[in-house]
Amino acid sequence: MDAVQTDPALPADAVQAFNAANADFRAGHWPEALAQYELALAHASMESAALQRARCLVRMGQWMPAREAFAATLRINPANYSAWLEAGHLCRQMGELQQAMGSYQRAIDQVPERYEAPLALARVLELGGNWEVAQRAYQHAVQAASHESQARVREVHHHMARYRMERGDADFALKTLEAALQVRLGPQQNGASVNEDAEIQIDMGECLMRLGCTEQALAVFSAASGAQRESTLARLAALSYRLNLWTDAIAVSRRNVALHLGSPWAHWNLAYVLNECWQIEEAEVALLQAQKLAPMPGAREMRASMAMRRGDADAALLQYQALAGEPGAPAALGSTMAMCSLYCDKLDAQAVADLHRTLFAPLGAGARARQSFVRDPLDGRRIRLGLVSADFHHHHPVNILMQPVLRELDRSRFEVFVYFTGTSHDEQTQRARQRAEHWREVSSLGNAQLAKMMDSDGLDILLDLAGHTDPQRIQLYAQRAAPVQATYLGYPASTGLPNMDWLLGDALVTPESADTLCSERVLRLPGTVFCFAPEADYPYPHYDKSHANRPLTFGSFNNVPKLTPRTLALWALVLAAVPQSRLLLKAPSLGDATAVQALGKRLQALGVDLARVEFRGATPLAEMMAEYADIDIALDPVPYNGGTTSLQALWMGVPVVTLRGHSFVSRMGASFMTAAGLPQWVGEDDAAYVRVAVERARDRQALLALKQGLRAHLQALPAWDVLQHTHNLEAAIAQMCAA
């Protein structure tokens, strides 16, 4: 930002307004700063005020006015390097790559000895696939940086590597990061470079993980953990958590606290990681320590998250609602509240639907009209289908259920574009990428950029696979990014979003009688809405006579937030009605002794003898699947039924007692069991739920016979035939496009 003006030729009013604007700008008060810069410009044609005005508009998200403000700055001084450079950045953000290139080239023309513009130009040229010219621009940036210092050269390489990671080119990025590490620094710089090395190593580790080189990645992460800087260690911990390296994430966060005991943010980051890793009691201690050192604006939100993780969604929702009324509430809070409401015992289906509509109705203001999309007639060409997801990774439920569909989609009928909004990459991401005709890495793109890309791709229909789960793109859909928009798989409820045209369900999760609960039109797939056809081989347990003679074991592998007071009360009644039966509970948080103690107290308060209850923590997926052999009957939670967990249980020979609720999320179990030809396992109310559990537990021989042949039985049914399910989905997509 420009210094305070002292030019005596400037009017005093202009100087006063400019100085006040600078103070507001430094404080992040963009509207106030904008008003003062405009006042200064009203008194004098000030180049610095014009540039700062453009910067305010960028920060306020007013992109078209910002473009005009940069143009106004350049009318005052056509040689303003910063204006050309930042106008280029803005054009790139808006998806206007040609205009961005032109702006960057004009910046280079003004000051060719600076590195920022050629580096930015190289980035945009690579986005456009112009590799040869991009390489020349990149070398220009390196050469310009070399006139400053070797540290600057390393910085240029590192930036370029990150741009390549953004594009999803991990191999190219890795080579660039290696070049960065090879830059020789002077003696003074070498002594302080451990943190800079670690920053590069963190990115190298992520590239290696994306390339499937796990052991090499872990070695690089280990080297990076020797960093001293707080922000570097916090970044390493966050990435480790994102890559499912929970133990490493916690260890790095603890080291960060040990090195920076007086930093509230070190304690805050430890609290965050512990909470995300389901070590809630210790997370609360770390949060309290952070708050002792400084006010923590996000403390209420984290405590609401803790309440959710303890299974008290009603208390969590109250905290989120209180937070929503405060200034500076998180942008994603609406989606967090919507998701939370699905778990609440105290909200009926209508209240949940009303909350969704109330939260998101304003997002549709000024949306693009469907009629504004110009597309060729569908006759004689493939449907251009866009899929939006962050979840093609690890063992995410969306990945498990969607990979076989992506494999089977008829490419003669559909041209498939996957817009990957995530940042976690592994072999599953690579598999999805190979199956998509067009793969777009878009995690770094804003909604406006992404909408422009989708329109350029000429999509006929956009399929959202996330709903309100994080990271969501609800504003993209509310403003309309395709002629037809539908939601499927990722969110078991109506989204409440304006301009979300369709919700894919089935006759049980979305019966016609519940259409008024949905803000979308409902299209019902035959059978069940989800098809479980795992690509991994999970050996089927050998159920022999010993299984009929052991104490009967009920079980649930659902996360603790689903274990609401109503759910636990039902399970307590089941245990009381089936003497000598046991309950096996498995969830990520139950690897933490304090979480086990807390859940145990809730069960004891309901009269459950904890000697009959076994708690298990997280294990790798293959091991978890094998553990289903230890359960005789699964108990479905309410109101948020098991989704993938129930399908996994059935696949491993474990039938599920469930309750037919009043909305999508509370009718999934009924859908699965009915599609499995086992409607007798579905209760119509709480009393019937308990009665079904008791009746099914009574005849151990019949139960054993069912368990022995359950997978073979499922494989003979249409709902477990992924090819048929994909054909059904293809027909639904065609129907939505034609409607």
What does this protein look like?
- This protein has 739 residues and is α/β, with parallel strands linked by helices.
- 55% of the residues lie in helices and 8% in strands.
- The strands form 2 sheets. A 7-stranded parallel sheet has the order 3-2-1-4-5-6-7, covered by helices on one side. Strands 10-9-8-11-12-13 form a 6-stranded parallel sheet, with helices on both faces.
Question: What's the helix and strand layout?
Answer:
Elements: H1 12-26, H2 30-43, H3 47-59, H4 63-76, H5 81-93, H6 97-110, H7 116-127, H8 131-146, H9 150-166, H10 170-182, H11 187-191, H12 194-210, H13 214-224, H14 230-242, H15 246-259, H16 264-276, H17 280-293, H18 299-309, H19 313-324, H20 333-341, H21 349-360, E1 383-389, H22 397-408, E2 414-420, H23 427-435, E3 438-441, H24 447-456, E4 461-464, H25 474-478, E5 484-487, E6 502-506, E7 521-525, H26 545-549, E8 553-556, H27 565-577, E9 582-586, H28 593-605, E10 613-616, H29 621-627, E11 633-635, H30 644-651, E12 656-659, H31 668-675, E13 682-683, H32 686-698, H33 700-715, H34 722-738
Parallel strand pairs: 1-2, 1-4, 2-3, 4-5, 5-6, 6-7, 8-9, 8-11, 9-10, 11-12, 12-13
Helix pairs in contact: 1-2, 2-3, 3-4, 4-5, 5-6, 5-7, 6-7, 7-8, 7-9, 8-9, 9-10, 10-12, 12-13, 12-14, 14-15, 14-16, 15-16, 16-17, 17-18, 18-19, 19-20, 20-21, 22-23, 27-32
